[in-house]
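Bug report (template v2)

What were you trying to do?
Predict the complex of my protein with alpha-D-glucopyranuronic acid.

What happened?
Run completed; filing so the output is reviewed.

Input:
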Amino acid sequence: MKHLFNSLVRIIVSAPRTIALFLTGAAAFIACSAWAAPAPIILTGADRRPALSLDGDWAPIVDPYFAGIRNNGFYLNRKAQQGDPFPTEYDFSKAPKLKVPGDWNTQRESLFFYEGPVWYERDFTYQPKEHTRVFLHVGAANYKSWFWVNGQKVCEHEGGFTSFNCEVTAAIHAGGNFIVAAVDNTRREDNVPTLQTDWWNYGGLTRSVSLIEVPETFIDQYDVHLSRAPETKLAPHGNDFGLIGSLYLEHIEGWIHVVGGKIGDKVKVEIPELNSDGSGVLDADGRAKFLLVASNLQRWSPETPKLYKVIISAGQDSIEEEIGFRTVETRGTEILLNGQPIFLRGISIHAEAPYRTGRANTDKDAETLLGWAKDLGCNFVRLAHYPHDESMLRAADRMGLLVWSENPVYWALQFDNPKVLAKAEQQLDEEIGTSRNHAAIILWSMANETPNNEARTRFIEAEAAHARELDPTRLITAALLVRGEGNTKIIDDPLGKSLDVIGFNEYIGWYEGHPESADTTQWRVEYQKPLIVSEFGGGAKAGLHGGGNERWTEEFQANIYRHQLGMLNRIPQLRGMSPWILMDFRSPNRTLTGIQDEFNRKGLISDQGEKKQAFFVLRKAYQEKTVGKPE
Ligand code: GCU
């Protein structure tokens, strides 16, 4: 110890600058890492709560070496003072602004390829209220993020596509406040997703940020859905109406969880338009089940996307929701929507903003993308490969589009790493916890194109079991790879056992064979379950024309679609499709100059809204319903 002390004295005397840096860095690092903040919480319907928006211009500092976390604590947002013994080597007020919500890559040329930490600072004024708790709601921050309010750490989060909420009640004060966030989109092996993706690694506060106020005892999560039980006589509510003439009585059930709630506290659910309400009492875990009986309910479907105002209340707290009621299940190889077989005429969509490109995050983006899907004749969309923005899901509810929502377990994760499974399950908790009341969502997808090995199968079986526990009312699926023997394609991945609906990706005519190869391809399916072809397609540069066998031309892409539709119609248990993909999207893997220019060109529409020939081939098939078994 004595030697250490002597050498320290020697250093102090000889090199003041190193000392200064060391001391401030050490202090800052100790301060932020040592002081653990509470974990963020999940809030169902957070976007339905009154909020103070923090969207707009934020002051960023690009910090590739993450100096701000170590050296002089950017989270303190310190202003240099005259006579300071140490230099303050940052000043948010001098930084050119970045927009939130938004990725940084498409906002500044110099950040287009940037992967690393970026700091964000924003001032705001606030007036605390009695008996009120305040949460910082973050729609999404890609990939790892840390948040401080007035220099006090309030939370950290991992995962780029789900919303989370950090309590700031203790850190916020009357008048002027400031918030500092650090967001790091560095790709790492043990991330979810991991190092390789075929989409741009847009970094930043990519979805809306706001302050939400709730009473001291408040509702954090709730589930309201139509029971799969056939409409029958009234449930046990003590009053027995039985069947009234031709009126059907439907059962709406679910649960409400209340933070700070006591056993026996009452909760209530009301649907004014149906003149129906139900109540329940909290159990020891702060959760209450409820059941409503409703007559004359109009079920939600793509043809009739009826939404009802639903008021969920407990104590001082209440949330007004817009919810549609439908059931979804399988029967053998059929998918039943409201008890009727359905064929899912779909398209895959990335959260790439039309025209401006970058991360999609506005109602307008959602309406444009889903408007094109409707124009295509779709009743279904696969939102790939990660949970999309709530604005997209609300638009799907309104526009009557069924949704496949996916957890970003993409390609080769570290499947034998339990920490990685925990991250995947945390992202599922957030995806399902936030979006469980959207009638549009019928499928939770666990993964895309994962290698067929035991560790992978164990991992996704655990993930699927976790999802079923969270939500037994929807179907579990995944996009599987298929294998081939000669011109026979075989779907027998063991993971299929854990799925309700089997998705599979194939690129006959693009990555293998010619467009015509589809005509002679046989399919062998080892499962008596509904099948969805979750990806097929090929690339085309909008406006590039030539022969049907000239790659990158619109004619080539259209040719692939024609032959694919013929082949797919020969698979008896095919119950849906979501070709790859609605719109061209940015990908770092796509480097063919003059054609791709960092875009995956498999869109049926270019990023500038130009519809390619294949768009019309698929639209014709969807509008004339010549795909899938007639409904
Ligand atoms: C894969 C993958 C997509 C990718 C597509 C392609 O199947 O799931 O994410 O973009 O193929 O190669 O275009």
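What did the reviewer find?
The first strand starts at residue 51 and ends at 53. The two ends are 81 Å apart (CA to CA).
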